[in-house]
Amino acid sequence: MKSAQILQATLEEKYKQLLQYDKREIDNPDLHDNVRVNYWNRLNLIISTVQKYFKNPGNVQIGDFACAQGNASLLLAELGYIVFAIDINESFISYAKHKYEKGQITWIVSNIEELDLPKESLDMAIAGELVEHCAHPDEILSKIMSFLRPGGLLIITTPNGSSLKNNRPTFSQFSKKSSRKSLENRQFGPDGEDHLFLFTAEELPMIVPQNSVIIESGYDGGTFLINKYSRHFFKLLPIAYMEQSVRFLSRVPLVNQWTYHNIYAVIQKQFSE
Fold first, then answer.
1. Residue at 247 is within a domain
2. Does residue 100 contact residue 128 with C-beta atoms inside 8 Å?
3. Which domain holds residue 54?
4. Mean pLDDT, 10 residues at a time, over the chain (273 residues)?
5. Quick check: is 152 in a domain?
6. Domain count along the chain
7. How far does Cα 267 stand from its chain's mean position?
8. CB 64, CB 86: distance < 8 Å
9. What's the pLDDT at 185?
10. Structural domain includes residue 242
11. Which of 109, 199, 211, 212 is 20 to 30 Å from 8 at the Cα level?
C-alpha cells in the first residue's frame, strides 16, 4: 500500500482531506502519536481477527463494507485474501485505488441496500464504523449476512456508547423501528458528526440477525487515556510498550467500558437445519 507521503506530490486536490487523515492515522512518522496508535489498534484488530479465523488466505473471499479509505481492504489483499471493497462514496473508492500496490481487490461503489453480490459467496465480512450511520442497522446486517456462506463471519466495529466522552443517544432510545423513521434522511453520512446513535456492548446483540450468533466481542480503537498528554510519557519507551498498553487496557473491566473509543463483535452465520 502506497504511503500518504508518496501520494501527496501527485494527488488531486479533491483527495487532500482523505490524504490528511492517512497522514495522521496510518502513515504518521511520529509512531507515538496517540491518534496513530489508537487508529492502528482498531485496524490491527480487524486484520488479526481475519488471520485468526482464516490462517491460510487461499481462496478466502472477504467483503469490506463501507471501506472508506480502503486501508483494511488493501492490507488484506496484500496478505493474499480476495477482497471486495465496497463504499457508497465514489471519492473514497477512487482515493483508495491510488494507494493500491498488489493483491486481488474488486472495487465497488454502491449502497449496501442495492448491492448485487452473489448470495452466500463470502467467507468473511467487515462492517467497520458502519452501523451507527444506519437508521435500520439490523436490516443492513441482515443484508450483509445474506452474502456470507453458512459458518461465515462478520466483524463489526462501532463507537463505544458507554464511553464517558459520549454525549450522543444510544440505540436503546431508538429500539422501536418507528422511532428511527425520522433518521432515514440523515443516514449513510461518512463523518463522525453523522452518527445517528451509538451502541453499548449490551445493545449490540439487539441488531444481530436471528440466524447468527456473537462468538467474540470486546473493546478496541484505543482509549482516551492514551492522549496528547500521556503520549509524552510513552515517548521515553519503545513504541511496543505503548501499543501493548492499549491492548492490555482493553481487557481491564470498567477501564475498557468507560474509556475505549470502540467496541467490536465477531458474528457467525449459522448453518441451516
1. no
2. no
3. 4-9+40-223+262-269
4. 91 92 95 96 97 96 96 98 96 96 97 92 96 94 96 97 94 92 84 86 95 97 94 93 96 98 97 71
5. yes
6. 1
7. 14
8. yes
9. 86
10. no
11. 109
